[in-house]
Please model this.
Amino acid sequence: MFNRVGIDVGGTYTDAVYFHNGRIQHTAKVPTQSDNLVETLMNAFDTLKISDEQEINQITVSTTLVTNAILQNRIPPVKLLLFSGNGMKIDALPWPVTYTELTGEMDFRGREIEAPDQKEWEKLQLQRDNISHAAIVGKFSHRNRLHEEQLAAYLKQHNPSLTLALGHEWGQANFYRRSLTTYLNLGVSDLYHQFAQQLQTAVSARNIQAPIYILKADGGSLPLAKIRPIDSIYSGPAASVLSALTQTSSDASSIIVDIGGTTTDIGLTLSGAPLISSKGAQIGDFSTLVRSLAVRSIPVGGDSVVRTKDQGFIIEEYRLGPACCLGGDRPTPTDAMRYLKLIDYGDEQLAEEGLASLLPPEQRTPQLLHDLAAEIIDRVVDRIAEAVDSLKREWKEEPAYKVWEVLHPHENKEFNTIVSGGGARGVTTALGKRLKTTVQLGAFSEVSNALGAALARPTFDCTLHLDTYMKQYRVEETGEQGKWTGSLRPHREVEGFLETLVQQQVAHYGIEIQDMEKEPFDFFPIVQNYQTVGQIISGAVHLRPGVIGRVQE
Amino acid sequence: MKRTGILFFPAFDWSLGDSHPEREERLLYTQEQLFEEGILDLPQIKQFSPRVATMKDVLRTQALFPNPGAHTESLDPHLISAGSSLLLGEAQVNGEIDNGFVMARPPGHHSGATVWGNRGFCSLNNEAILVNYLRARFGKKRIAIVDTDVHHGDGTQDIFYHDPNVLFISLHQDGRTLYPGSGFVNEKGGPNAWDQTLNIPLPPGTGDEGYHYILENWVLPRLQAFAPEIIINSAGQDNHFTDPLASMNLTARGYGRITELLRPDLAVLEGGYSIEGALPYVNLAILLALAGEDYHHVREPQKLKRTTLTLAALKPYIQDLQKQQQTVKQSFTIQNKPYFPKGNWISIPHSVYYDTEGFQETRHDYVRECSNCAGTVYIESRRYTEKSILVRIPFEACPICEQAGYDLWDHLQKPNEGFANGMLQNQLHDKQYLWNRKEGLMEF
Model:
């Protein structure tokens, strides 16, 4: 049985869970000292009362550090150099950062249309402008990285201390997102490495030799040294989806609702697999290629302020202190729950007074107060249900590009709902009625992110794009580009090739993988003058997000 | 900026043959280009996923001969293409989007009122099925289709030839030099829809400038006069100078300008087989123009090497063509068969060649001359020894034409008439009936 530690480093609290022989031994919740993460982490370890440090197999950490740094605009400037080529005017899309456009163009097969112009490079003057970080991204560089590498070599030669990032390493299509992802990943790298060091220091200080893994936005974990910093964003919502997975049967389809103070996160699992967003993650003003779980965050929670408006009330997106029943001075959904005796914490009298303030004096009768409280909860539940519908639409309305896909749409599934977070108990009944599912309360909901992190297994994806005519292959996830020396119309050969790539990468990450899912290969004959001259082939293997065990209470 | 819907359905698992132009690869590079540009990240662009058209949707517009069952095996991709047009058309009419681009395979504009098989890569007419769907379901009355594919949209013309409420305009390379060999200025519509079909055959070598000139000076005024509620563009991309099957000289930016001039509510992809040199760029330019974005930076890598007709050389040709078109007068033959209901039935015989499978359909079309409606249509169609019939009671049929349709339909089913099967397309009440002497009647 496994011995694992899961840690969730949040802005306010750091939560931790210690699994011993597959069972939760201890949980911890300690304040996050943002100026002293090492101490925070050591405190967490101490609270876990780990009996034998040597027995721990793995530590998995989820953190909002990178997410918050981006959202709070705390990333150092990066010079963004683009080979933007022809096509859509680049400023048709909203760019949250400035960029410099350079001559040089590739096409969709990776053929050079126009060579770069070195004279433009000479005028860049990065040194004069004190630039230490630069990202170079070309349109179609995921098909041919030549221009990016030429410019990188040039810049390195003139400025050896420059830290560079190249866009082709993000090998999916979308020049815009590739540019911003490359930018962000470079921008947060120093911060991330600092965090990694602190983490390592704390772990070593507590004599733990277990490998450290980081939770990613797609719900998978990877070794600390192998993860790309930007992949660590949104690991919180991912962890809460994983935590729900630890509490259901392995093939269940679940709606996962995590009600916080001012936001509620909603996720979906389908036959045991979390729904992955078809687009990359959006963080602040940045659209990225980061693979993430499809999650909706809605600005409503137990502490959201309820305010009178016109003849009724509205639930605001913000919080002004705790609920009335917990000593605050603004009525909130928590007060409605307390008044209806759906939760047992907080002062009933204060909850009633808070709710009463929403009604004109003559209407403050028990019946009307009861109606009001019920309506507030219904309103919260409605908002959750809308988000659930939107997630289900995202699942059902995935674009289909093949006849087979259109003729075999997703079958309906029987869902259950798992609700966790402070207000969970208060909405159970209303949520079940509205969503027409059974509702289960999440266990250990005060440390659910740490729990999800602890049991996360690695995710792994390897998507091959092979153009036998151009004799080039590329791997989407790593941006690897290489020469194809096989036949023009390979059959079994390409399966073996992908298998080798997978083994190489798995070895590189140092992870163990099982349950690998193979996507069937797509073969596109390339025809010139009615002759087949080669093939474009794509195929992929995936290890979907999941958990290594289930929670036994 | 316009809210623009896109339905991208490249049918990556379907082709008409290994090295056929209509193959898996056709929209692969378009996908690469569109996705790489980040076009789906434009805030005004909304992507839709395809749906399958129902048989009722098809039969409202086209008769599948000898019966729909004979086609079902090969029809799936075509039903998805048609269904995708319906989906996006619906979104436009509902106001969910301002305009849209159905970028789906396979195409449809060579598929006519009667269908025995695939011709010109088309089995079902996506735009026509959409037009009649919008009329039947959303009460639309006047719709215009502008076909900018390099080939004459003969199937669409066939479907609406007798329909005064659908204006069909086709610009194409002269039928004397290109498939399907039709689309001359004298094809102006049936007796009840005279002048609602406009064919503009263009000489090989016509380029952006000439094409835009014709749009501005001929097509747009005609559209304006018709005042349609909806404009649909059959957006074939084979006018591009790199197209392997045709000889025109348009550029991707030229296509952007066409879209900007026509301002279609919906563009529906038709042909275009320069899958690397043209399609990625032309599709991008059209989409950008629809979305109200600048398309002037879209530039295909190849340079135009063929000589393009100058506007000065083209102008006299166009003026002459326009004069010819205007001077064509109606001349129809009345041919009343003994069992025809009362009225004058105009006979228009013609034959249709199915190039994909290589056979001929022989047709005898009759339309009841009527000054109050589009007139009931009666079509006898023959392939080899098989014979099928279509009776169409048009949208907004007058009571006399409606009754004529029923009378004809009843007559054909009589035991001593030599017909084995047929179809009643009652557009007035949106009912379709299939009849087979052995199996009887089936309603849709």
Observations:
- The mean pLDDT of chain B is 96.
